[in-house]
Specification:
It is built from eight helices and two strands. It has helices at about 5-20, 30-90, 95-100, 105, 110-125, 140-155, 160-190, 200-210, and strands spanning about 210-215, 220.
């Protein structure tokens, strides 16, 4: 949800709380009670969808990337260390300099640089595939590193998918807000006039609750066209 939607949701809740407080006033007007129940459902739907949006798009994506890159770092460092031992034992200082690294070095890099480094180590491992099984790096290890690289590259391209997910949730939220606006604008706002004289306190509090205080400090009665 954006700031304006959060402000509108706060207004919906104020209106609902006010209506529930004066439930006895409209007990003989079933249409009003039905609209109040509908608003309650509108609010619940908005809150549920906003929570789904937060979990699916933000937290879930972050955890998935974190786990994938943690595995890539581990596989890259393990492979690099084995190559370093091979380079040392065979007197190859150039290879040794190209493959000397540790976890902290990779953690300081940008995600794309981690992938590039992993690819470089994978290429060195492939170039010395015949000798490295003696040092613990066989086809299974090289395949695991290649799969991890591919997974992380896929995740690096995921922001576009995430934007699509956000668009989907944004569209759904707009529909839910539009439904709540309709409940207010087309039903409750019209029926509340029944209580102007019969229950002036309820009428006044309802009208006050209908004002939205937006983040800029402005105050406005929201209509069904605003989302």
């Amino acid at each position: 949800m954006n700031d304006r939607q959060e402000s509108k949701l706060a207004m919906y809740q104020k209106v609902l709380d006010t209506c529930k407080k004066y439930a006895s006033v409209y007990a003989d007007v079933p249409a009003f009670g039905q609209a109040v129940a509908q608003l309650d459902g509108n609010i619940a739907g908005i809150v549920r969808k906003a929570q789904e949006q937060s979990l699916a798009v933000s937290k879930g994506d972050t955890v998935e990337k974190g786990n994938a890159f943690e595995r890539l770092v581990q596989l890259t460092v393990t492979t690099a260390k084995a190559i370093c031992v091979y380079a040392f034992k065979t007197g190859n200082p150039v290879l040794l300099s190209r493959t000397t690294l540790n976890k902290s070095t990779l953690y300081d890099k940008h995600a794309m640089d981690v992938v590039i480094t992993a690819k470089n180590i994978a290429e060195e491992a492939a170039a010395h595939a015949a000798e490295l099984p003696f040092y613990g790096i066989d086809d299974r290890h090289r395949n695991a590193l290649a799969e991890s690289i591919a997974q992380c590259e896929l995740l690096l391209n995921k922001p576009a998918q995430t934007r699509d997910e956000r668009k989907l949730y944004t569209g759904t939220l707009k529909e839910l807000f539009a439904a709540a606006d309709s409940t207010l604008y087309d039903e409750l706002d019209l029926l509340i006039d029944l209580f102007r004289d019969a229950a002036p306190d309820f009428f006044t509090l309802y009208k006050s609750a209908r004002n939205v205080i937006y983040p800029t400090g402005g105050r406005k009665k929201a209509g069904k066209s605003e989302n």
